[in-house]
Design a protein that fits this description.
Layout lengths: L14 E2 L5 H7 L6 E3 L6 H5 L3 H8 L3 E6 L7 E5 H8 L13 E6 L2 H8 L14 E8 L13 E7 L2 E6 L13 H7 L11 E5 L4 E4 L4 E6 L3 E8 L1
GO cellular component, one term: nucleus
GO molecular function, one term: cis-regulatory region sequence-specific DNA binding
Organism: Melospiza melodia (Song sparrow)
Length: 233
């Protein structure tokens, strides 16, 4: 379901294709800046397993853990996956706070979801000394997570479009931790001088964003989206 939130006028995140070597990734991006990777993996088989019908058939009765869509995401709620898809998966209400918005974006039971993740082909690059962990999510248009930071990782869109906003570690963005990304985009973003605007871009299916350690980032799903992240811990 397409949302009404626009894409950015111009993507300001650097892009790279399958010609990017591991040594060049380490040299240019791993520790310094984000990059969007295209054509580095083929997840068409995984995408075929992530349709609404396939996911409901495989995981409908199993509980999923939802988090509040604020910066700290402290509150957790467990509901059957089918209930989330049929009743809670809807466009973001612009008037609701992040603490009142529930979002499925990562607390996966690996015993139950593991067979699905076995079909996912992760990006071919790693950070030395880290090991990967998957985080799978499904969310409605206009939803997202406001600014936060953690260790490095990749995020791939399987269905839909996801808009990203990123700041380097030394440039703390101006935001309220309980304001949704949609509200921030509508109220704060237009007031920012060009020099204070984040790096931003919209990811489409098959594209992968790499974000370095401690980079601030916020996300906004422009459509009902399915996505998977590979966190390097």
């Amino acid at each position: 379901v397409a949302g009404t939130v626009p894409e950015e006028p111009r993507c300001t995140v650097e892009r790279a294709d399958a010609s990017l070597t591991y040594s060049l990734f380490l040299q240019r991006f791993a520790f310094s800046r984000p990059v969007i990777l295209s054509g580095v993996t083929d997840n068409s088989a995984f995408r075929a397993l992530c349709t609404r019908e396939k996911l409901l058939a495989a995981f409908g009765p199993f509980p999923v853990r939802l988090s509040t869509a604020n910066t700290y995401s402290y509150r957790k709620v467990d509901v059957p996956f089918q209930e989330y898809v049929e009743h809670l998966l809807k466009p973001q209400d612009p008037a609701r706070l992040g603490s009142d918005t529930l979002y499925f974006f990562g607390d996966n039971n690996f015993t139950e979801w593991g067979p699905l993740f076995q079909h996912y082909v992760p990006p071919p690059f790693r950070i030395p000394g880290t090991s990967p962990a998957y985080s799978f999510g499904i969310a409605g248009s206009g939803s997202g997570v406001p600014f936060h930071w953690h260790g490095p990782g990749f995020s791939e869109v399987i269905f839909g479009r996801k808009r990203w906003f990123l700041y380097p570690p030394d440039q703390t963005p101006h935001f309220h931790p309980n304001e949704t990304t949609l509200a921030w985009l509508q109220h704060t973003y237009p007031t920012l001088p060009p020099a204070q605007r984040p790096l931003e871009c919209t990811l489409r299916p098959g594209e992968v964003l790499y974000f370095p350690d401690r980079w601030w980032h916020a996300t906004l799903n422009l459509d009902t989206s399915v996505f998977i992240s590979t966190f390097l811990g």
